[in-house]
Amino acid sequence: MSILIRTPDGGRLALEPRPGDTLARTIFLSRLWHGVPLCSGLGKCGLCRVRYVADPPAPTREELKKLGQTSLDQGWRLSCLHPSEPCEVEIPTPVRSLRAMRTLAPASGDFALAVDLGTTSIHWTALSGDTPVATGQELNPQTGLGSEIMSRLAVAATAEGRFVLRGLILDRLAEIATMAARNMGGVCTALAVSGNPAMTYILLGMKPDGLASAPYALTYAGDDERKLGAGLPPAYIPPLLAPFVGADISAGLTAIEYGDEPKFPFLLADLGTNGEFVLALSPRKRLVASVPMGPALEGVGLSCGRTAGPGAITAFRLTPKGLAPVRFEGDSANGPPTGMTGTGYLSLTALLLRHGVLDDTGHFATGSTPLAARLAARLTTLAGEPALALDDALLLPASDVEEILKVKAAFNLAMSALLAEAGLAPARLAVLHIAGALGEHVSLDDLETLGFLPPGLGARTIKAGNTSLKGTGMLATDPGARAFARTLPDTITALDLAADTTFGDRFMQRMRFTYVD
Known about the structure:
Layout: E1 3-6, E2 12-15, H1 23-29, E3 49-52, H2 61-67, H3 69-73, E4 76-78, E5 87-90, E6 100-103, E7 111-117, E8 121-128, E9 131-139, H4 149-155, H5 159-184, E10 188-195, H6 197-204, H7 209-212, E11 224-226, E12 235-237, H8 247-257, E13 266-271, E14 274-282, E15 285-292, E16 312-319, E17 322-327, E18 339-340, H9 342-354, H10 370-376, E19 379-382, E20 385-389, E21 395-397, H11 398-422, E22 431-436, H12 444-450, E23 461-465, H13 467-477, H14 479-487, E24 492-494, H15 503-509
Parallel strand pairs: 1-5, 7-10, 10-12, 13-22, 15-24, 16-18, 22-23
Antiparallel strand pairs: 1-2, 3-4, 3-5, 6-9, 7-8, 8-9, 11-12, 13-14, 14-15, 16-17, 19-20, 20-21
Helix pairs in contact: 8-13, 9-12, 11-15, 13-14
């Protein structure tokens, strides 16, 4: 017996059940959900919803909270919470992530391609000489097989999983190169790809045994060229620095330091699904650490989370009329918002905290002003969970606040651990570079309010943007940049935060919207 899929255009598709997999994963592998930012089994995003034509399985508590009783009675379920077994379901029109490309400068002819391969997103730049001429970003097509590093590595533990994961990303890299070649009338003559070690291993089809369980170890150090596939030139992979501090950080340090005179000591915080941190004490001494942060900062895995694109809310303001959302740049604002980006969540949480609608433990409160009190009056429950009702049918449940608090605690822990190891107070940092998912659009005031940063450090913080992509472009085109990156591994001391027996206690101490030294 098969899994019969009714598609939104009236088509029908038969899929073979995959014992041990979820229904969502089986549908994802059929390519029906490419570009959909699935939370991959968390039961939070709701983007894998399907309607069972007959005999729906018993609903879970997560489904009641996300879908509501009426939808459950109609046969709607979250396919990530049910096994890949024979059934007949219909799927709604997929909510796909933005796949964007921008022309930066007129150019034609051959080009180099720089790729920042993130766990959740791919960012790329085409360069004519050393000049960026086009850039783009999109969802990593592997996301439906694991929304964060360890779940992705679990898939990569088998030969079949590695083959599928690698094929997804290689196919997309080839398509990006072909698209750029068509637009520029040339061919891709050089390629550099940066990512964390897990993404790099998967890209190269390598067994990730050293990354999947403790004691973690690198079996591949990077700083070489690897042939990826037909139609692509050999790809330069920058040096990997520690088991979870990768080529993206080598590229980021190249962007900050190569050809410049940076002020020491500085901290580079590259924030994404995996948070990677470097405390650069001098040109010859750098401490590194990493912490899992999850995909929340990229708008994945939250109840109303969405990746950046038309229809998404990126920030909030409190006006005399109440909450006023700020829509994605260039959004025509036609129709209700589709959800909130990671920066939208941070903006909302910081606003609620400033006005007493949240306390520093992340619990909802009554508000510290009459306007805030009117906002707090919108507190409701969602399947027994406290939630704040926003406009346009959006909700902020307590569990989403907890996810933001976990991200804050992870950031705070990594930063304070590096500073403590070096014997530095935050006031002695010359510069903090915020890079990665937050590195361009986040409000520094919000980060201080939420306790990511100690008071006053925002004045010495630079929103550095995608330093990994910038540095990867330099490494794709400049031999001197590669020579600089080659020196980095000998300057690195890695802190294994998770191996510290006090890690759990220190993390819990930072589960407050206050910076903890």
